[in-house]
Amino acid sequence: MIYTIPKILENAVLEHPDKVALRYMSQSISYKEFYEKSECLAITLLQLNVKKGDRIGIYMNRCMESFIAVYGITMAGAVFVPLDPTAPNERTQFLIDDCKIEHLVTVPAQSRAIVKIAAVSEGLQTIIGLDKDLDVNTVSWSNVYKSDRNSVEFPRVLGKDLAYIMYTSGSTGLPKGIMHTHNSCLAYAKGSKTLYDVAALDVIASHAPLHFDISTFAYFTAPLAASTIVVLSDAHTKMPVSLAQLIEQEKISIWYSAPQALIQLFLNGLIEEKDFSSLRWVLFGGEVFPNKYIKQLLALWPQAKFSNVYGPAEVNQCTYFNIDNTYEINEDLPLGTVWENTDYRILDTNDKQVEKGTSGVLAIRSETMMLGYYNNKPLTDKSFYHESILSGYDHVFFKTGDVVKENEIGQLLFIGRNDRQVKIRGYRVELDEIEAILLQHIDVREAVAYVEKNNNESRDSVTAVVLLKNETSEIDIKELKIHCSQNLPKYAVPEEIYIMNEFPRTTSDKIDRNKIQIKISENHNG
Amino acid sequence: MDNTIINYIKNQLIVSDEAIDLDAEDDLLGSGLLDSLSMMKLVGFIEQEFKLKIPAQDMVIENFMTVACITNYLKSKSD
Q1: Mutating which of A26, A65, A117, A239 best tests the B interface, going by the most B Cβ atoms within 10 A?
Q2: Are the CB atoms for A465 and A447 separated by under 8 Å?
Q3: What 8-state DSSP symbol labels residue A265?
Q4: Which of A45, A177, A280, A311 could bridge to A318 as Cys pair (CB 3.0-4.6 Å)?
Q5: CA pair distance B22, A525, nearest whole angstrom
Q6: Is A441 helix (H, G, I), strand (E, B) or coil?
Q7: Which residue spans of chain A are classified as CATH 2.30.38.10?
Q8: What homologous superfamily does CATH list for B2-78?
Q9: Is A5-238 a CATH 3.40.50.12780 domain?
């Protein structure tokens, strides 16, 4: 029975020991090697006295070792925490302190950043995956792979155990950690394997980095089906022509990314000249996919089915809408219908169910749902909606914050957000967080952040406008950008920052964000 | 040529208060130094600065991995 993350790999080894599990650039390893390497990492961790529930950071660019880390850490009964290597060090340090990471797994390519992080993170005891000596203990990958299986006792890992904490943007200015168990992870992996009929013959591209929640498809669903996973390099994700060559060469059969990556591939990848006939599923999620591009991609890849995947990281996936090139697109694609083993409610602002056809916040109840936010019971409680069924037995739903409406044929349509969360290249960004960071700057009195739409390339970015404490203070925009880039992930750093002498106000003296946006676009874009 | 590109990357594409030591052999694509958006800006800058057009099929990892790769590629184009 497969009920934990390590069991996924055990099962793949039993059924397909010699099949290629992972391919990255010119390297590849079989499921048997994948398992053995993961086990070696687990032994290394257990020798370091790692106990069940301990948090282990994974600080890596896209690479094979990130897969080994996920399985090795969970085999040891520990909890993995993906750390974004492109995030500013201050943010990484915050996450390390926030969930008390003592051991971190990395790769030599990250050594420059790791040296800096290790120097300031007092709680860090061990860095695994570096060849050089630091003030903290380091263990190289070659030493990890020399581990002796008989030297330790493995813990009993249960489905109910915590498996990972994935951090996402928080509106207070501090990231929040989403806690998932082996059960919620497996429920997603099994559900998506069934829905997309994933099999051992499939070749799956791993495009999303581990800290982006849609990565769970490549990290868990693909090994559950014992498929071959092609781990795309960071370089490939930046060079669409190289990426297109790789998809053709590797005969990728399932693709999953945010729409932005597909649009870049379409616009700059010269894909008309490529043979993509192996592609049978194109999954996309994280944000709305502009219709004009889907239409062209459907025409270009007539053999492929496309799936609009929806679900916040708190519930993994919860709805889908599948189409092929016989589908006529006239308006935005619906989020579709909830998948198996999932129920939903659409609620008004008083948590009362709305009448069918009226818009409200979508709440989801499913096995794929998170346990809660790490170390934040008030926020967890606030995000759950309870229906009392019997005394002592509630149905608990997660309130997504996404406003939806159900149409006549039972499909859910995305209307917007009930807060100020936006999506940039598929990543969740809280505009409140950006404003909170700007306000931390000594010269800033007030700040407004909004999304600037770029319809041509559909490359949205954040714009910020600030009001200074002292109009005459000499501050340059670059200094504000540096301040943001030290505290926010790259995709959330404002592309443009403007300074205004005063903010337009509403009659109730609130900042009039709409007017500010209009003023800026008149002055700078026209 | 190397220096023009290095300076552009240092001054325009990387927002940081630390002095970045970037040399022609540093990995631009794999290190997280530049994201896909910065890559597009870099290509735009090169086209403008050196008055040439980089055809889409040349925008591959081999030509853009490092500043040295970029200058080699640009030289091969002008030959």
Answers
A1: A239
A2: yes
A3: H
A4: A311
A5: 33
A6: coil
A7: 337-366+374-417
A8: ACP-like (1.10.1200.10)
A9: yes
Distance (Å) from the alpha carbon of B77 to chain A's nearest alpha carbon: 18
Backbone angles phi and psi of A425, in degrees to 5: 45, 40
What's the pLDDT band for B17 if we cut at 50, 70, 90? low
Query: What is residue A12's DSSP assignment?
Result: H
When scoring B61, B62, B66, B73 by the number of chain A Cβ atoms within 10 A, the one with the most, hence best to mutate, is: B61
Distances (CA, A) of A82 to A55, A221, A487, B50: 10, 18, 17, 41
Range A421-524 has CATH code 3.30.300.30: yes
What is the number of CB-based contacts under 8 A between chain A and chain B?
A: 59
3-state class (DSSP) for residue A79: strand
The bridge status of strand A79-83 relative to strand A55-59 is parallel
Q: Does the beta carbon of A89 lie under 8 angstroms from any beta carbon of chain B? A: no
Please indicate if any CB of chain B lies within 8 Å of the CB of A85.
Answer: yes
* pLDDT, tens digit (0-9, with 9 covering 90-100), for A183-205: 999 999 999 999 999 999 999 99
- Exposure pattern of B10-42 as b/e (b: 16+ CB <10 Å)? eeebebeeeeeebebebebbbbbbbbbbbbbeb
- Longest CA–CA separation in chain B, Å: 39
Question: Do residue B59 and residue A268 have CB atoms under 8 angstroms apart?
Answer: yes
Whole-number percent of chain B with pLDDT over 90: 46
For residue A217, which of A243, A248, A185 has the smallest C-alpha distance? A185
Give A-chain residues touching B17 at CB under 8 angstroms: 482, 486
Task: Determine the pLDDT at residue A151.
Answer: 82
Q: For residue B16, which residues of chain A lie inside 8 Å, CB to CB?
A: 482, 485
List of chain B residues whose C-beta atoms are within 8 Å of the C-beta of residue A486: 17
Question: Between A291-300 and A259-268, two packed helices, what is the crossing angle to 10 degrees?
Answer: 60
Nearest Cα residue in chain B from A266? B56
Chain B within 8 Å of A176 (Cβ-Cβ)? no
Q: What single letter denotes the amino acid at residue A58?
A: I
Question: A113: nearest CA in chain B?
Answer: B31
Sign of CA dihedral A205, A210, A212, A217: positive
Compute the nearest-CA separation of A120 from chain B (Å).
16
> Is the minimum CB–CB distance between A487 and chain B shorter than 8 Å?
no
Question: Confidence band (pLDDT; 50, 70, 90) for B31?
Answer: confident
- CATH H-level superfamily of A337-366+374-417: Luciferase; Domain 3 (2.30.38.10)
Kind and range of the H or E run holding A399: strand A393-406
Residue ranges matching CATH 3.40.50.12780 in chain A: 5-238
CA distance B39 to B70: 12
Average pLDDT of chain B is: 87
Q: How far is B59 from chain A, CA to nearest CA, in Å?
A: 6
| Contact between chains at B17 and A85 (C-beta distance less than 8 A) | no
- Domain spans, chain B: 2-78
**Residues paired with A177 in a beta bridge:** A167
Chain A nearest CA to B79, separation (Å) = 23
Q: What residues of chain A score a pLDDT lower than 50?
A: none
